[in-house]
Amino acid sequence: MIAHDVLHVFCDAEGAHGNALGVVRDGAALPASGDRQAIAAELGFSETVFVDDAERGAIDIYTPSTRLPFAGHPCVGAAWLLGVDGLVTRAGPVAVRRADGLTWIEGRAAWAPGRTLHQYGSAAEVEALPVPPPGAWVYAWAWQDEAIGRVRARGFPGRGDGIDEDEATGAAALVLTDRLGRALEIVQGRGSRIHTRPKGGEVIEIGGRVRRG
After folding, report:
1. Are the CB atoms for 186 and 193 separated by under 8 Å?
2. pTM, whole model, 2 decimals?
3. What is the CATH number of domain 5-94?
4. pLDDT band at 65 (very low <50, low <70, confident <90, very high)
């Protein structure tokens, strides 16, 4: 097994929950995309990050079955771990900032294609949903408190690669924020917390807490 760090990204205020992320700091040891894909499948996280240049924040992101140009929780986790002010992804440069215990990154909805948003009438309906069969990437959501921008959500990748439900998905949260045009606090999965803020134009910030292990 290759050496890697395990982080949990988008934890709640007490450090609980969050989506597990694998980070292979020595990406140079596995320069071939096929080798990285095999390691990501072996590790089995919803995403695994390979660090190509720690000082520049250059990263490469994989699910167990495919390579991604951008993903939210890998970028937040990698930014926190590397302590950089920016990342370099296949989608483009990603600005990073830190405030009040949160690590924030910038992204664009165009970097997260293929997410299907399904709105439900209540948080209880979202919580009661069964995992759908493999197919479209579905982000199920409902207002928990519309006045303050709190959303209840669950994410179903639909890839058939062993990840039936994502605990916390920054890219899908970015797409929802773009659709609604307002800042959100998203409660996803068992209790993970994703914070988002439109910055103007097409840029949206995604923020969250990270813990190791």
Report:
1. yes
2. 0.96
3. 3.10.310.10
4. very high
